[in-house]
Write a structure and sequence with these properties.
The protein is mainly α. The protein is built from 13 helices and no strands.
Amino acid sequence: MPDQPTPPDSIGPDSTAASGLLAHGKPLAPFRFPAFRAIWIASLFSNMGSMVQSVAAAWLMTDLTSSHVLIAMVQASVSLPIMLFGVVAGAIADNYDRRRVMLVAQVGMLLTSAALAAATFAGAVGPYSLIALTLLVGTGTALNAPAWQASVRAQVGPEDLPQAISLNTIAFNLARSFGPALGGLLISFWNVSLAFTLNTLSYVVLIVVLLRWKPQMAVPRREPMFVSILAGLRFCASSGPVRKVLLRGLTVGFGFAAYLALLPLVVRHQLGGTEVSYGLLLGVFGIASIASALFVSPVRRRLGSEAVIGLSSVSFALGYGALAYSPSLLVAVPSAVLAGAGWVASFTTLNVAMQVRSPDAILGRCLSIYQAVTFGGLAFGAWIWGALADLADARTAMLGAGAFLLVTMVLSRQFAPMPARHEGRADL
């Protein structure tokens, strides 16, 4: 018998990877499972394309308008659909085959990205049409996210779930490291339409892998959509530990939102940089995120979730301060390091806390509610900090976001501390 339960897709761990970093409980242990490996590699390419498109859209908006709010709304357009439609997407993930839900979402995002590439190539994109198309891509992300996160349990054994979540975070941040720099180079070499085209192609790899993946999961018991949504909301409202995680996700998302929302504005007007400079700063942000993801699990086991969230908030607040007063790109690099490390440490910790406290039967709905709350904080924060930058300036907005993080960190430790390690855990 294997030394851990076989995941529901009946693909057990490779027998050749029984020691070292691939051993049970180690950071790379989920790579023993072929299904996880294939999906992880495909998602890396897809995330790379998404980051290239994100950079291109943000930079294009600075060409189309000088409005700080509209520039910040490019970032918010990715988060807003998750807030608005995430709970419905979670009910869909629990009522239908999760693999098929992901396929529908990926195909929809491919078609929308293709339309964005064609419209940009034809010179037919304005500020509001750009936001509309990025909102459609965000809607595909909202549909995909709960099914995607809930399917991790079908790819690895339950003991390796925290490591699998961290590795998926690393895949995203590998893309964040190299995608922005690649996007900046593509824009400078040709124009934004080339970046949008590359993102369109990146969906193909993941669609092929999902078509080949045949997990053996129980057929979901379907409920009326409204009843299904209410069941997820009722559980999250009645669980004290889950309520704490949701509140922390909301405040952290709101406080973190200003960095990525205002970064293109700061690079262009404060630092006097180009699209390549913007991509390089995002690349540094991503590299710091990867380093943080590799160490966050052992640090969380040793210090606890509350300490990790607190240290992350302090790190991010210091990053805001460093960026607000940076006179050049070189001086701004430490801000990206501090913010990138804080971003992943916080969101990985919150994601794990939510996953292990959610019953499998309503996992998609619980994760979608968490995503809706967290991304709602990001979207609302991007709008608020962008509006503050319009009223005052970007420096004031970033310093305000940093102060918000520090104040809410102190208050949350007192009134909504992160749940203890075994508080409210669900059977995996």
